[in-house]
């Protein structure tokens, strides 16, 4: 339907960057500005190809493990968190570190440590192999079992059914997580829950927004990279909530003509590690295809911001510089900008 301006875009708000992602990306940018040396980053700082490529262009060097970092050099840990073993490896190499772990992930780490000290079996709902899950499980490997989803529940074994707690990865589908937890409760009726939600506010807000849009959308487009857990979940949530079709794209170059056949309304959202510039590019492309009527659909307002990592704040303070930030704009635009 290209060229005919009769199509509608339902634009999810909130979408895009969360506070933890903004903090991590800004930490790398500030480190590149303030340190006169190579800045290494263990793993992708956030799961978004555009963001990582942009930071590479500015000089950041991304590595898989700390043993790739020269002894005594500066390394930043990604937003997904690390296990104590990784921290020990960094210390053995005398690395100077900046920990950009999202504070909401750190909260889950602390819960794992606390329940392990109380000798609980910890059932960690999350995806095997995801950096965040590896970091959390690494806090108490002898106490943690990873539960990938409802289908894993029957495989779980515990020492004492009266002393079991569940925790979760922060970026999961809320509905699927609760389905897993409900099945766990059937097996372990006294299963304890985390003191507060482990699934982060941004993940929940973005899922609520896409659920509102999906029933009225012939096509839902989620901007986000394939290794972004929360972006993939948004695509799945959209289908479950009634979207006729849903696709995840890294950029407009991945759009396919056949997706638009018979489509009159397009829902648009983006994962929590996606800068809004990519969404704006998508909206411009959709307008070219005839979807020029953009209707924002707001389900929450977000104004949370986290302080930069302590190590970076101390370095900036020693130089008499402020770590004050305004609400993200431009490449770091959030749903609220």
From TrEMBL:
Protein residues bound to [4Fe-4S] cluster: 18, 102, 200
Gene Ontology MF annotations: 4 iron, 4 sulfur cluster binding; 4-hydroxy-3-methylbut-2-enyl diphosphate reductase activity; metal ion binding
Cofactors named for this entry: [4Fe-4S] cluster
Residues bound to dimethylallyl diphosphate: 47, 80, 130, 228-230, 273
Coiled coil: none
UniProt entry keywords in alphabetical sequence: 4Fe-4S, Iron, Iron-sulfur, Isoprene biosynthesis, Metal-binding, Oxidoreductase
Positions with a binding annotation for (2E)-4-hydroxy-3-methylbut-2-enyl diphosphate: 47, 80, 130, 170, 228-230, 273
Family matches, as Pfam families: LYTB (PF02401)
Cross-referenced CDD domains: lytB_ispH
Organism domain of life: Bacteria
Entry's cofactor comment: Binds 1 [4Fe-4S] cluster per subunit.
Record protein name field: 4-hydroxy-3-methylbut-2-enyl diphosphate reductase
Protein source organism: Brachybacterium paraconglomeratum
């Amino acid at each position: 339907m290209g060229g005919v301006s009769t199509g509608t875009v339902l634009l999810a708000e909130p979408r895009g960057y969360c506070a933890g992602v903004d903090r991590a990306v800004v930490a790398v940018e500030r480190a590149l500005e303030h340190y006169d040396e190579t800045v290494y980053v263990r793993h992708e700082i956030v799961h978004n190809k555009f963001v990582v490529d942009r930071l590479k262009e500015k000089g950041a060097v991304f590595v898989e493990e700390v043993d790739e970092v020269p002894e005594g050099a500066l390394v930043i840990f990604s937003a997904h968190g690390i296990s104590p073993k990784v921290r020990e490896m960094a210390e053995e190499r005398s690395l100077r570190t900046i920990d950009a772990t999202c504070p909401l992930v750190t909260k889950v780490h602390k819960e794992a440590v606390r329940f392990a000290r109380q000798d609980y079996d910890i059932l960690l709902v999350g995806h095997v192999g995801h950096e965040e899950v590896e970091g959390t499980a690494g806090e108490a490997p002898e106490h943690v079992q990873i539960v990938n989803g409802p289908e894993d529940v029957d495989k779980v074994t515990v020492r004492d059914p009266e002393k079991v707690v569940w925790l979760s990865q922060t970026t999961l589908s809320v509905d699927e997580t609760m389905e897993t937890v409900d099945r766990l409760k059937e097996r372990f009726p006294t299963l304890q829950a985390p003191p507060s939600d482990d699934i982060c506010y941004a993940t929940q807000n973005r899922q609520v927004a896409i659920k509102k849009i999906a029933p009225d959308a012939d096509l839902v487009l989620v901007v986000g990279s394939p290794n972004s857990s929360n972006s993939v979940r948004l695509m799945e949530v959209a289908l479950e909530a009634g979207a006729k079709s849903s696709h995840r794209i890294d950029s407009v170059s991945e759009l396919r003509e056949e997706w638009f056949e018979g489509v009159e309304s397009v829902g648009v959202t983006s994962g929590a590690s996606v800068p809004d510039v990519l969404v704006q590019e998508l909206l411009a492309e959709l307008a070219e295809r005839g979807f020029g009527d953009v209707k924002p659909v707001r389900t929450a307002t977000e104004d949370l911001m986290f302080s930069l990592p302590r190590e970076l704040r101390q370095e900036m303070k020693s130089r008499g510089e402020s770590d004050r930030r305004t609400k993200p704009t431009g490449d770091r635009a959030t749903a609220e900008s």
